[in-house]
Design goal:
Blueprint lengths: L33 E5 L7 H15 L4 E5 L4 H9 L5 E5 H9 L13 E17 L14 E3 L6 H12 L9 E3 L3 H9 L5 E6 L4 H9 L2 E3 L4 H7 L5 E5 L11 E13 L4 H13 L1 H6 L22 H9 L7
Parallel strand pairs: 1-2, 1-3, 5-6, 5-7
Antiparallel strand pairs: 3-10, 4-7, 4-8, 4-10, 9-10
Helix pairs in contact: 1-8, 4-7, 5-6, 8-10
């Protein structure tokens, strides 16, 4: 079985210049055999899954220097890909859909039609966890409370805003809004600077596992009627299972939003094909890189894609007998 090399350095938001020097940014990175993957922060699933993608590329494409970038998540990754600062990115389905259709007045007032899907990677679960002694048991109890909604501009923020709006709550109704990464959220909730947090990521998020070891947590249900009221097919009914975390209130109903690997339509067909071949050639270590990838397969890799597949990705899956894409 192929082992992934221990190659990866975390790239912070401002560190976008490629290692070949400052002049490299003026040339499209894919022309120079560099592949940057925009991921997320270290407390959720986006970053380790981005690491897994980069490790698969490095294992099968020795002529490519691949790197993972630590970012604010979905919306920043979309901008990085569009600006040619990253070749590939991870994003939640609702963020990609809003970007392509231009339905988010704040972020995407105009459609961005060049985004293309590469593969569905894993389902992100909207985690809503609070201190068990906060008195919060329902969405309505969030009024007047101190809540973090993830990094500013990330998919968690969008999910939180959308879910609260469907429940008749705005950010202004909360006592205080923080925009913290998973790791910073863990520190803040332990120190009682916040009462709870939203986190959209795969099951087994390291930040929540860590928090549950030191304080009593409670999961707040996001009921089916709220998810239905959103009116967006990207939001699917789901459940955070019992035993996933050391916390009260599990199992808890919630929303699932798929996380996708995407790129720009201008990405060469050969590069997209090579990336997909690399992932499936190293399937066992890829699945083992993070719990959210455990069920990844050819069949699941085409589920719930809210935007058009890249031509090379479509050809890749069709050639392997997967014809029901989307």
């Amino acid at each position: 079985m192929t082992s992934f090399p221990p190659l990866l350095t975390r790239r912070h938001l401002g560190a976008l210049t490629l290692a070949t020097g400052a002049g490299a940014a003026a040339t499209p990175a894919h022309a120079a055999r560099f592949i940057n993957v925009g991921a997320g922060h270290s407390g959720g699933a986006f970053f380790p899954v981005g690491v897994a993608v980069v490790a698969a590329i490095s294992a099968s494409m020795p002529d490519v220097r691949a790197q993972v970038q630590q970012t604010g998540g979905s919306h920043e990754n979309i901008q990085l890909v569009l600006r040619r600062r990253a070749e590939f990115g991870l994003a939640l389905a609702d963020a990609l859909s809003a970007a392509v259709r231009g339905t988010d007045e704040r972020r995407y007032p105009r459609p961005l039609p060049s985004l293309r899907g590469v593969a569905a990677l894993f389902p992100s679960y909207v985690h809503l966890a609070v201190r068990a002694d906060s008195g919060i048991r329902t969405l309505q109890d969030l009024r007047g409370k101190r809540i973090t909604v993830g990094a500013a501009g990330g998919g968690t923020e969008s999910n939180a805003r959308t879910i609260l709006a469907a429940a008749g709550i705005s950010f202004a109704d909360l006592g205080r809004i923080e925009f913290l990464s998973g790791t910073d959220s863990a520190d803040a909730i332990r120190d009682r600077r916040i009462d709870g947090l939203f986190l959209s990521t795969g099951l087994g998020a390291s930040a929540l596992v860590e928090i549950g070891r030191s304080i009593d947590l409670r999961f707040v249900p996001i009921p089916a009627e709220t998810i239905t009221a959103i009116g967006d097919a990207a939001y699917i009914l789901g459940e955070v299972p019992a035993g996933t975390y050391q916390a009260q209130g599990l199992p808890a109903p919630t929303a699932i939003v798929w996380t996708h690997l995407f790129c720009d339509a201008s990405m060469p067909n050969a590069t997209v094909t090579q990336v997909l071949e690399a992932i499936f050639a190293n399937l066992d270590p890829f699945r083992g890189a993070h719990g959210s990838l455990r069920s990844f397969s050819l069949q699941r890799a085409v589920q719930g894609m809210p935007i058009a597949f890249h031509d090379a990705a479509r050809d890749f899956f069709v050639a392997r007998g997967i014809t029901a894409l989307g």
